[in-house]
Design brief:
The chain has 2 domains: 176 residues, Flavin prenyltransferase-like (Rossmann fold), CATH 3.40.50.1950; 203 residues, CoaB-like (Rossmann fold, 3-Layer(aba) Sandwich), CATH 3.40.50.10300. Strands 12-11-8-13-16-17-18-19 form an 8-stranded mixed sheet, sandwiched between helices. Helix 9 packs across helix 13. The protein has 393 residues and is an alpha/beta fold. Bound molecules: flavin mononucleotide. Flavin mononucleotide binds next to helix 4.
Length: 393
């Protein structure tokens, strides 16, 4: 296994030595990349000695036979980690700035990315840093958040580099999961649908799309080819995911039926409208004190997939406010699914618009598997690991 380890210009740069040691002990080849700022804190000689590899930096010339070093390296690595990651590098990565070796390497990498930010708590708390990190996480980057404690500036706060042992562990985990779903095509739906009332108005629901996007991201991190079919949401597309934007349930149905042809799994996390209003060709004029809207049943995409199923794994979601497990069990059987992920949307702080969720996975054999409350990114990983146990190719 080969890991590229970027070291940028923070006071914690010296802790990269422990990370190299930990990886080396685990039998991993480490290729270090030192930023200009990083070189002010630690010498290439130290890194070269510990990693037994020459250090790459802005000073590095072409490789043997004129090879382009950053592209050459992307082909060889299993994981790209940056520890410590400065506020400056989080910003460069988030925006795709490629003005030195480390940032140019980032934008060329297809392997999983792990960052371990470290900085003064004021820099950590700045909205720019928060936004940059949110962009990276939405792309599928794993972030090991800094810890709280005494900082180099003689003040207490959050900003200290995560424990090097944790960083080593996370890098090894990312490498391990990165091929779990290799060669599988996973189709995920996300977000709400919008059913037009007239050219300017629509009926919709509160789905944020986060659960579906987290599932797409987690599947891509596990090496799957991922198609994400999404209703209108304000979320960044995860790295390596093919995204199809749709609006109405009819458009979502069409995209799902087209994408399922060679799918190994279809995960329907979208909140597709059950009932759709009639559509007026012209804008509905304000006038009458009341208007009647007669809603009619929209397409039941999951039911359609279940009735015409091939060998793909079908996974549905059941958002319920009462009799959670009974309703979910009924839906699983009625729609001929393999798994259903049930969540209780009456509990505050989880589900629909929230960042966290707590779910129970039910299967055809009647087993139930509870997944305790956690951020949706983690829930997504647990759902995939449960569903694909023993099924990866
Ligand atoms: C003594 C000192 C300590 C610093 N520590 C950090 C740090 O922990 N985290 C950080 O993001 N920036 C830190 N900075 C600022 C960065 O070094 C500065 O933004 C630099 O341009 C980063 O270089 P690089 O991103 O090219 O590695 C520090 C600066 C100094 C002078």
């Amino acid at each position: 296994m080969v890991v590229a380890l970027g070291i940028s210009g923070g006071i914690a740069a010296y802790k990269a030595c422990e990370i190299i040691r930990g990886l080396d002990k685990a039998g991993v080849e480490v290729q270090t990349i030192l930023s200009r700022g990083g070189a002010r804190f630690i010498t290439p000689l130290t890194l070269q000695t510990l990693s037994r590899n020459t250090v790459l930096s802005d000073r590095t010339g072409p490789g043997d036979g004129g090879a382009v070093r950053h592209i050459d390296l992307t082909r060889r690595i299993d994981v790209f980690a940056v520890a410590p990651a400065t506020a400056n590098f989080l910003a460069k990565f988030a925006r795709g700035i490629a003005d030195d070796f480390l940032s140019t390497f980032y934008i060329s990498v297809t392997a999983p990315v792990v960052v371990a930010p470290a900085m003064n708590s004021r820099m950590w708390d700045h909205p720019a840093t928060r936004e940059n990190l949110a962009i990276l996480k939405a792309r599928g980057t794993r972030s090991l958040e800094p810890e709280s404690g005494w900082l180099a500036e003689q003040e207490q706060g959050v900003g200290r580099l995560a424990d090097p042992e944790r960083i080593v562990q996370a890098i090894l985990e990312e490498a391990e999961i990165s091929s779990l779903l290799a060669n599988l095509h996973v189709v995920v739906t996300a977000g709400p649908t919008r059913e037009p009332l007239d050219p300017v108005r629509f009926r919709s629901n509160r789905s944020s799309g986060r659960m579906g996007f987290s599932l797409a991201s987690a599947a891509a991190r596990r090496g799957a080819r991922v198609t994400l079919i999404t209703g209108p949401v304000g979320l960044h597309t995860p790295r390596g995911v093919r995204r199809i934007d749709v609006e109405s349930s009819a458009e979502m149905r069409k995209a799902v039926l087209e994408s399922r042809a060679d799918a190994d799994a279809v995960i329907m996390a979208a909140a597709v409208s059950d009932y759709i209003p009639p559509r007026s060709e012209g804008k509905i004029k304000k006038g009458a004190a009341e208007i009647d809207l007669r809603l009619s049943r929209g397409p039941d995409i999951l039911m359609e997939l279940g009735q015409s199923r091939g060998s793909e794994i079908l996974i549905g979601f059941a958002a319920e406010t009462e009799n959670l497990l009974d309703n979910a069990r009924d839906k699983l059987a009625r729609k001929n699914l393999d798994f259903i992920v049930a969540n209780d949307i009456s509990v505050p702080g989880i589900g629909m618009e929230a960042g966290e969720n707590e779910v129970t996975i039910l299967d055809r054999e009647g087993n139930t598997h509870p997944v305790p409350r956690a951020p949706k990114e983690q829930i997504a990983g647990r759902i995939l690991d449960h569903v694909f146990r023993g099924r990866s190719r």
